[in-house]
Amino acid sequence: MFGYVNKVFVMATLTAPATATKKKKNATAKKVVKDLAAGYNEFKTYNGQQYTGMQVGRSHKWYYDKGEWRERKITPDRWEITYSVIKRRAGKAPEGSGVPVGTGYHWFILSHQFVHKLNANDYTTAMMGLKLKLAHMRADKGKWNISEGTKRNRLIKMLKEFIAELEQEPEKTEIVPLQFTFKNKEYKGMAVPMMAVCSNGVCNDLDVTLNDKHFGVIRNTKNGWRMTDAKSQAFVNAIGDQILLWYE
Questions:
Q1: Based on the number of CB atoms within 10 Å of its own CB, is 215 exposed (0-12), middle (13-18) or buried (19 or more)?
Q2: How many CB atoms are located within 10 Å of the residue 198 CB?
Q3: Rounded CA gap, 106 and 151, in Å?
């Protein structure tokens, strides 16, 4: 009987802190989620412009379902395209963050598209560029926040600003050729500038393809060259060295 009481007491001594720790972790996790949601929804400013949502500089990652891309040739150098698909967030949105279900956005996309023929019916495809927000639709409104005429004027203004940027900073669309040897293997490909991160004749973020394989974006940070999910920093440095040589 005494031993049983002692056993129960010992178990209580051991499990109570664990329960308290678990509760503390849950409370911390809920606070983090709440803070993320609040951060997403609070008003922010960028170059004098007030906005809400994701902070400038952060990023999303999405997975696209099997979609349908259609294109029709309308001049020797121009095609019209349509594309429809469901995209899915790679992770999970913080609880309580983001816009309500039913919200809509109207974007205009400016993008490179590189294709490489693999066989009679298959091509690799890679795109990198910009998307410009023309308008949004609040879930409780059911209509765009601006008229079609205002959207058109906004697009014209954005395109004029983009053209001016390209004229002043031609490096934004100049493809960087890559060719080097790493661990006795030859690599050949290209690095495509991410147009929003170029200044003084140099682009610090570039999308890399080597030997017909897409490697992702390489970034020139204060701590050196970095690539997400890169297995070899030496390989990343080799790519970065080639980019710097081209810009010299």
A1: buried
A2: 20
A3: 9
Torsion angle of alpha carbons 225, 228, 229, 232, nearest 10°?
0
Q: What confidence tens digit (pLDDT) does each residue in 189-241 have?
A: 999 999 988 988 999 999 999 998 999 999 999 999 999 888 899 999 999 99
Which residue bears the tokens 């079609």? 148
d(CA 196, CA 57): 11
CA atoms of 22 and 44, how far apart (whole Å): 34
Kindly list the domain boundaries of the chain, sorted by start residue: 60-170, 172-247
The answer to whether 99 and 122 are in contact (CB under 8 A) is no
Distance (Å, whole) CA 219 – CA 4: 63
pTM above 0.85, yes or no: no
Q: How deeply is 203 buried, as exposed, middle or buried, from its count of CB atoms within 10 A (0-12, 13-18, 19+)?
A: buried
Distance of CA 98 to the CA centre of its chain: 16
> Could you identify the residue written with the tokens 């066989």?
119
In contact, 22 and 78? CB cutoff 8 Å: no
Tell me which residue of 147, 111, 115, 151 sits closest to 131, measured CA to CA.
Answer: 111
Q: What is the pLDDT of residues 75-105, one digit of tens each?
A: 999 999 999 999 999 988 877 777 889 999 9
